Amino acid sequence: MAERRPVEIRPAIEADVPAVRAILAAHGNDGPVVVTDVVGPYLRHLLRFGRARVAVEGDEVVGFGATIDTGRSVHLADLFVRPDRMGQGIGRPLLADAFGDAGRRTTFASDDPAALPIYVRAGMRAWWPNLYVEGTADRLPLPPAAIMTRDATAGDLAETERTWSGHDRTAAWAHWTEQTAADNFVVLDGAEVVAIGSARVRQNSTLRVLNRLVVHPDGGVDPVPVTLAAIRRSGRSGEVVAAIQGPSPVLRPLLDLGFRIADRDQYMASEPDLFDPARLIPNPGML
User: Fold this and answer.
1) Which of 108, 113, 106, 115 shows the shortest CA–CA distance to 129?
2) Number of H helices, E strands in the chain
3) Domains of the chain, each with CATH number or no CATH
4) Integer Rg of the chain from CA
């Protein structure tokens, strides 16, 4: 057997994307493009705006890790090692290089018991489950008369989030807007904007996704009817999925209305209060 070369960690480049996608596909995180390619533009966004790294043995990519600064934290978007190289000491240094010296850290980890210890040793704790709740949008009741939605531009959404939180997510909102069948919108209570969101179609099916929703941080805004209105719009009367946080008050109403938990992973963070689980439906890759 030929002796293996040392594994090198270096910045990811455009030419690495096919090899990275092969690793993601081996883990079930990439697949056939039925409607639109979601993964390709997402990876290129990470290469341009994030801190993306590959682990390379000779000229073969054997691992990929990427983080992106969300303002709230440095968020681990992806960490995958080629299945035949798992358990060989590649993941931990790849994770360390992707995070760099970031203090505030977040990620959504699979329930794989081998993954969680790596994230704990990287300074994060497991706080609550992130639940992919799926159902038919027209099962949701019509919102109260005062709650409406209207179209919005990426610039509108980025400026509103910056005003509410101080975080500049201009590049992220522009990326989500460029996806096929994207739907950017605001939720209004009367004349006041009380939430901002974006929806899209899934890569491997016609299932729609509430890609991200931010509810006004004012405690006087009830997140439940606002979030239900956003999910109803996102689904366009068909099947829709949203990443609902375990503590969210909208989880019970959705389950009572016939929605189901289709999948789950684990929210992990270095601190307990980096976002309000009642007021953010995150994009798992970019928070």
Assistant:
1) 108
2) 8, 13
3) 7-125 (3.40.630.30), 132-281 (3.40.630.30)
4) 19
In this prediction, residue 247 has a pLDDT band, given cuts at 50, 70 and 90, of very high
Torsion (CA) 226, 228, 229, 234 in degrees, nearest 10:
130
Q: Give the helix ranges, DSSP H, for 134-250.
A: 154-165, 170-177, 223-235
pLDDT over 60 (residue 271): yes
Closest listed residue to residue 190, CA positions, set 225, 166, 138 = 225
Please name the helix (run of DSSP H) or strand (run of DSSP E) that holds residue 22, with its range, or none. helix 17-26
Q: What percent of the chain has pLDDT over 70?
A: 99
Higher pLDDT, 123 or 32: 123
> What average pLDDT is seen over the chain?
95
Close Cβ partners of 73 (under 8 Å, ≥ 6 residues apart): 102, 104, 105, 106, 269, 270, 274, 287
Residue 153 contacts residue 183 (beta carbons within 8 Å): no
From residue 83, give the alpha-carbon distance in Å to each of 73, 91, 125: 29, 11, 25
**170 is written with which tokens?**
């201009």
273 three-class SS: coil
Q: Output b/e per residue, 125-143; b: 16+ Cβ within 10 A.
A: eebebbbbbbbebeebeeb
How high is the pLDDT of residue 1? 41
pLDDT, tens digit (0-9, with 9 covering 90-100), for 99-132: 999 999 999 998 778 889 999 999 999 999 999 9
CA distances from 178 to 37, 185, 210, 258 (A): 11, 14, 15, 32
DSSP state of 114: T
Determine phi and psi for 41, rounding to 5 degrees. -60, -35
